[in-house]
């Protein structure tokens, strides 16, 4: 290892949890780079096997001034072979079901699985390149793969902090209900099944990470954006003022994010504000289907099993979830 460890804030949890929102907010700070979902750089950027392969700057990933350097290879054939190797290793080593094994390796209870060091070397090299190109204070990765977060905790050349973001599973169920250009549709029950599995795996990571782990709720980020962003900044080791003002407004510029929610492409004045559509857009049957698989964790995260009551945390009712909206009030 040469030079200081690159500081990485790795977001974990289930999809549609607000990582794009939070990442783009922090990206406005000097020396902070939000990279989106780095896990999919090789799959989407080189192989073109996924969706949403445009960088947040608007260029294809292979022509982006940042990612073209990260993906640089002597030839197109070499680049493709490298990408296929990375994707194969990801599938065999850092799926959610691999979280326990990766944590056992971090604790020194078993040797690293074959290929794991090779895979993590690729990720670490990418983080260091991003750190050298504008992310010297913090690289923010919203990949949301708990097993990958677990494995990265063991890297001596990285200073990894794990941010676990949770969101009401009924809200994520609504997002997954219809097909979109960048995600396949999913039933409410299936979405909440994944929600439970990913969040349980993320909690396991937190037990090993100790003070390198923080859990925040999407709803709290949206109800109190300035305060919640400040909490995340302190956890990440930054002493900046929150870039969000007291009304939830922020001016967003360009970014270099890999895949993720199309909200990452938005520019200009943006306001974080409540989005409670799932309560009326989902049928009673869909709400029930999304609630039942998540029951083991709902109370722990402050979400009511009977969704039409107010969520409670620390004895105080909470306002509904929020979304990223361009411009001012509507």
TrEMBL record:
UniProt xrefs under Pfam families: Sulfotransfer_3
SUPFAM superfamilies: P-loop containing nucleoside triphosphate hydrolases
Name of protein: Sulfotransferase
Protein's organism: Streptomyces chitinivorans
Lineage: Bacteria, Bacillati, Actinomycetota, Actinomycetes, Kitasatosporales
């Amino acid at each position: 290892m040469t030079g200081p460890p690159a500081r990485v804030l790795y977001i974990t949890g289930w999809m549609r949890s607000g990582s794009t929102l939070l990442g783009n907010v922090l990206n406005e700070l000097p020396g902070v780079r939000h990279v989106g979902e780095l896990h999919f750089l090789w799959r989407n950027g080189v192989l073109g096997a996924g969706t949403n392969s445009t960088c947040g700057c608007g260029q294809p990933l292979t022509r982006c001034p940042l990612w073209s350097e990260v993906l640089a290879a002597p030839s197109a054939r070499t680049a493709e072979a490298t990408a296929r190797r990375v994707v194969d290793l990801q599938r065999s080593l850092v799926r959610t079901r691999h979280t326990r094994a990766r944590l056992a390796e971090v604790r020194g209870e078993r040797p690293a699985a074959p290929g794991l060091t090779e895979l993590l070397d690729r990720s670490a090299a990418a983080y260091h390149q991003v750190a050298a190109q504008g992310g010297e204070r913090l690289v923010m990765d919203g990949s949301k793969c708990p097993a990958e977060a677990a494995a990265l905790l063991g890297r001596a050349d990285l200073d990894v902090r794990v941010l676990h973001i949770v969101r009401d599973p009924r809200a994520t169920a609504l997002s997954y209900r219809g097909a979109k250009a960048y995600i396949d549709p999913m039933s409410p029950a299936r979405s909440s099944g994944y929600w439970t599995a990913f969040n349980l795996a993320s909690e396991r990571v937190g037990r090993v990470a100790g003070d390198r782990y923080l859990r925040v709720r999407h709803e709290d980020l949206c109800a109190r954006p300035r305060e919640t962003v400040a909490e995340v900044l302190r956890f990440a080791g930054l002493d900046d003022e929150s870039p969000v003002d007291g009304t939830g407004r922020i001016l967003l510029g360009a970014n270099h994010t890999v895949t993720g929610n199309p909200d990452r492409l938005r520019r200009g004045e943006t306001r974080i504000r409540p989005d409670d559509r799932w309560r009326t857009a989902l049928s009673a049957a869909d709400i029930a289907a999304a609630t039942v698989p998540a029951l083991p964790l709902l109370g722990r995260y402050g979400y009511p099993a009977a969704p039409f009551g107010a969520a409670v945390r620390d004895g105080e009712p909470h306002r509904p979830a929020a979304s990223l909206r361009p411009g001012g009030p509507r």
